[in-house]
Amino acid sequence: MSDRVFQTMWAYLWDLVDDGIEGSVDRLKNDIGLDGISVATAYHTYQQLRPRKSGNGKLLIAPEAAVYFQPDASLFADTAIKPHVAPMVGAGNPLAQLANACSAADLKLISWTVCFHTTQLATAYPQFAQQTAYGDNLGWVLCLGCDDVRAYIIALCRDLSVNYGVSRLELETCNFGGFGHSHHHVKQALELGNLGNYLMSLSFSDGCVEKARNRGIDIDGLRRWVIETLDSVFATGRPLEGDISEFVAARPDLTAFQALREELVTSLAGEISDASGDAEVSFLLMGDRWTAGIVTDRLRDRVDLLEVLAYVADPAKVAGTIDAAKAAGADVERMLVGLTPYGDGMDADLLTSLVRQILASGVSQVSYYNYGMLPEPNLEWVKSCIKATS
């Protein structure tokens, strides 16, 4: 790791396999100049356009969320949830091959782990999915209020840190999911409003209900009130808008339930850190306090790194993203900023300028999105940017 800046890139294992693992690692380290590679080890469904893919076929579609390594079954004894292994892994273990190649090349291997955004597992284990007040399962997201879900992700992270020697666990969607983000095409004619969306995002899974009762929260009464409040939105067609902090503070049972949700997210991050040995733990700040349960200044004390995404070709917006994270309690010394080397207005000079701006703010870690999605000229932009800023 450079004393000044640590630069990494998100990547999909299948792209590295298709390009040749050893050759890809050599290029990323010795040609492009990266310090690390952040590889998807557990990922949701996707449709990916691959501009550098040779031969026939530029589009890759994965209809199931999966893990991209051979899990150690013994580590999952404390949970009913078992990992679903991607078909591409087969009887082999390309992640182990990648770990060996990265070690030989002195390229840091980071596990980019999508935690709870998994239609595959939320459908296979519906009792552990987030559940609305009406009893609808949010079939794309597991609920971290359920003990089996918490045990599952702790086991997954321990597996990656112990058996694959990753230097860092990068946690994506290690929080509650919000209503509206779905695996399916969403069909909705009614705008619920910011308060309505929040209420529809509250999880009344068995795990959350039990934990609320153990706290002395009248969870049954709260659930009835949530239904009654949303019923008025459905009946009138008028969105429920307002200041969410005032809205939550007006009901003591909702205040207590929200506090429980936030504690569940924060404590899980700490439990993962405790179980992950020497691996750093990094938390992607994707979501807000209310629907996701993310409280930045509390997470700061439970993990090694916080990550923000500045996927814009606008210096003012990049600065605003960093300032917002700082205002929420993040330390620039322990922050990573994600950039996209593509899009309207982006070029090699602007990318370099943005990285210099980020470094000037006190942040020393940058990641680029995404190896297999970038055309060749864009990879060269990253290469020139690293050379100019390292």
Topology of this structure?
Layout: E1 6-11, H1 13-19, H2 21-32, E2 36-43, E3 46-49, E4 59-62, E5 66-67, H3 94-105, E6 108-114, H4 119-124, E7 129-131, E8 137-142, H5 147-163, E9 168-172, H6 193-201, H7 206-214, H8 219-236, H9 244-249, H10 252-275, E10 280-284, H11 289-292, H12 296-299, E11 305-309, H13 315-327, E12 335-339, H14 348-360, E13 365-369, H15 376-389
Tell me the CATH topology.
TIM Barrel
Number of separate structural domains: 1
Strand content is 15-25%
Low-confidence segments, given as residue ranges, are none
How large is the radius of gyration? 21 Å
Q: So how many helices?
A: 15
Q: Which structural class best describes the helix and strand composition? A: alpha/beta
What tags apply to this protein structure?
eight-stranded parallel β-barrel, two-stranded antiparallel ribbon, alpha/beta, TIM Barrel, 17% strand
Overview in brief:
This protein is α/β, with parallel strands linked by helices and 390 residues long.
What do you see in this structure?
By secondary structure, the protein is α/β, with parallel strands linked by helices. The protein has helices at residues 13-19, 21-32, 94-105, 119-124, 147-163, 193-201, 206-214, 219-236, 244-249, 252-275, 289-292, 296-299, 315-327, 348-360, 376-389; strands at residues 6-11, 36-43, 46-49, 59-62, 66-67, 108-114, 129-131, 137-142, 168-172, 280-284, 305-309, 335-339, 365-369. It has a single domain (6-131, 138-185, 262-389), classed as TIM Barrel. Strand 11 (305-309), helix 13 (315-327) and strand 12 form a beta-alpha-beta unit. Helix 13 packs parallel to helix 14 (348-360).
